[in-house]
Amino acid sequence: MAQQIQLPCDNEGVCLICKTTPSVNETLTCSTCVTPWHIACLAIAAQSSSSNVWECPDCSDLVQAGAPAAGEKSELVVAIQAIEADASLTDKEKARKRQELVSGKAAVKEGRNEAVDMLHENFKCCVCFQLPDRPVTTPCGHNFCLSCFQKWTRQGKNTCIKCRFSIPAKMASQPRINSALVAAIRMARMSQANATGQLKITHSVHNQYRPDKAYTTDRAKRNGMANAASGRILVTTPADHFGPITAENDPVRKTGVLVGECWDLRMDCRQWGIHYPHVSGIAGQAKYGAQSVVLSGGYEDDEDHGEWFLYTGSGGRDLSGNKRTNKDQSFDQKFESYNESLRFSCKKGYPVRVVRSHKEKRSNYAPEDGLRYDGVYRIEKCWRKVGKQGFKVCRYLFVRCDNEPAPWTSDEHGDRPRPLPTVKELKGAIDIFERSESPSWDYAEEDNVWKWKKPPPASQKPVRADAKPEDIQNARIAIRKAETAASKGKLLKEFSCLLCKDVMTLPVTTPCAHNFCKSCLDGKFAGQSFTRERSRGGRTLRSQKNAMICPACPTDISDFLQNAQINRELQDLIEKLKESSKEANAPEESPEASSEDPNKENEVLNSEAETKNVEDKKRKQADAKPPTPTRNKKGKVDDNLLKNENAA
Predict the structure, then answer these.
(1) Can you give the pTM of this predicted structure?
(2) CA 591, CA 185: separation in Å to the nearest integer?
(3) pLDDT: is 257 or 627 the higher one?
(4) What value does the mean pLDDT take over residues 51-76?
């Protein structure tokens, strides 16, 4: 059943349930969140209104759900109590901090992405001083919003507002948006939204905070168990565990899940790790295998003989719209999805847990009520045949192979290897598959037990285990750091040169909004002159300008190349991203190891200083020396060389 709604009084002292204004003697104030509650409207009667340690239902639920052991409290309650115990804060400041903590704004501030902070520090519009919207980068390396740039140039000002560097007339009339910077800003914002959880709101409860039984919340839209949530997983096996649940995976009872155990609901069966899906009868993955099945009478082709049974695969029915309970087959089944997972378990010889439901009315071995765990079986064959409804179905032969006796027998020991039964329908079957290799789960004659003859498949899912709140917090911090490092790496890839495809060194931005390394761009036009001399009949004509086309578009950038300026803002951001990525990837050294060899530290520092000096010299030389034209001995440009270069 859904829990009864309990609400406190509002800011004006009016009870949100009965809509009355109770007196001071008729209210209780929570010692944790300092919220007044109407005593008459509380579902559980309070002991006295004069208690100083009374906690409201919200705070007490947090303590009960988050504390497996007595005396422990959840992180939220501890944080609120710390705020209340801080004597340096006023009542107004305490209320504001409590509100930020409960609303999640405090966590958002802590989870702010460093990549976004770097962008805010290095890229600002020179007019509005905000992160550029539709950024435009001038040849001098300064950034503007498109609207701010157009407002500036429409006033007839063709110089940069920050450094007074000349802006080309074509760029002023038709500015180009820097697509690399747009992609970097978008990526950083998306990574921040993913880190802070603002894109998708989920209502999830950690396993250790769930109750011991399936439950419904106030958000349930229907009565009963239609919108119920699973209770706490009571075993430590992962969701894709093969074989029986042993005692070492049962921290509650220390016995494991025994054959013959019964449950009322699928939710309870899930809590003990026997069968995880709430509705589906098959639990498995196509390329990994099937872990468990449920016999619930969903297909009329099923045949149950106790120690072996014939199982029908899933699919073949139209479940679209409101046909979720349609039992009429309308197309053929294929070996895919869940059906393929069963065939994969047949191929490898994996054990499959079997649960029988009381809904299987045609079986003599089904329980009278609820669900019952009947041990592990092994799939020996699978095939396809035409079913009773005229469409092809996937069929599987299950044979029991458990160390515990079946619930319907009085034997003292488990199963022994038995010959396969004769299946008459195999005569007209197609796509017959039978295992050719030795099974992974088999009977050991020397030990007289069924066990793994081959190592079980490695789990692909996390283990269900209760963790301490501080461990969960540390894991979240580690995940957040990894996501930040990944976002920085992706951000660096966005700032790659269009020529060498590597992260830019000494980046320059052309008037057509393309980014290159300065050395790559100079090397592209090395040996070419900006003008060429002309003569006709011994008469010297006016020199002609040579067109130098941008490597990424048909724009002439010859004027820009005569005095190409390094984009200092982009350079600083790239250097910061590289340094932070090195720090994140560097292994943590112990203080003892760092103190053992101080000479290595000095060598590293000296090499870094030398590298920095060399880069500074190269940067100064690149700024001071634009590409020079090639001339002959008389000081004139070689016309033949120019013709060959232009032809090329």
Answers:
(1) 0.48
(2) 38
(3) 257
(4) 52
User: What local confidence, expressed as pLDDT, does residue 261 receive?
Assistant: 94
Domain ranges of the chain: 24-109, 234-317+329-452
What Å distances lie between residue 275 and 238, 270, 372, 423, CA to CA? 12, 5, 11, 28
Residues 603-618 have pLDDT tens digits of 545 555 555 565 666 5
- Alpha-carbon distance of 377 to 308, in angstroms, equals 8
Per 3-state DSSP, what percentage of the chain is helix, strand, and coil (rounded to 5)? 35, 15, 50
**Cβ count within 10 A of residue 541:** 10
61-66 long-range CB contacts below 8 Å, 24 or more apart? 65/205, 65/209, 65/210, 65/211, 66/208, 66/209, 66/469
> Taking the chain, what is the end-to-end CA distance rounded to the nearest angstrom?
82
DSSP assignment of 348-381 equals HT-EEEEEEETT-TT-SSS-SSSEEEEEEEEEEE
Q: In DSSP terms, which residues pair with 433 in a beta bridge?
A: 382
Q: How far is CA 199 from the centre of its chain?
A: 12
| 9-37 as b/e: b if 16+ CB within 10 A | beeeeebebeeeebeeebbbbbbbbebbb
Give the chain's largest Cα–Cα span.
Answer: 120
- Report the 3 state secondary structure along 491-531: HHHHCECCCCCCECCCEEECCCCCEEEHHHHHHHCCCCCCE
Q: β-strands 289-295, 351-357: how paired?
A: parallel
Q: Give me the long-range contacts of 140-146 (CB less than 8 A, separation at least 24).
A: 140/165, 140/565, 141/508, 141/509, 141/565, 141/566, 141/567, 141/568, 141/569, 141/570, 142/569, 143/178, 143/181, 143/569, 146/175, 146/177
Residue 613, pLDDT score = 61
CA 539 to chain centre: 73
CA atoms of 48 and 247, how far apart (whole Å): 46
The residues, any chain, with a CB within 8 Å of residue 414's CB and separated by 6 or more, are: 375, 402, 403, 404, 405, 449, 450
Determine the topology of domain 234-317+329-452 in CATH: PUA domain-like (2.30.280)
Spatial distance between the Cα atoms of 292 and 277, rounded to a whole number of angstroms: 10
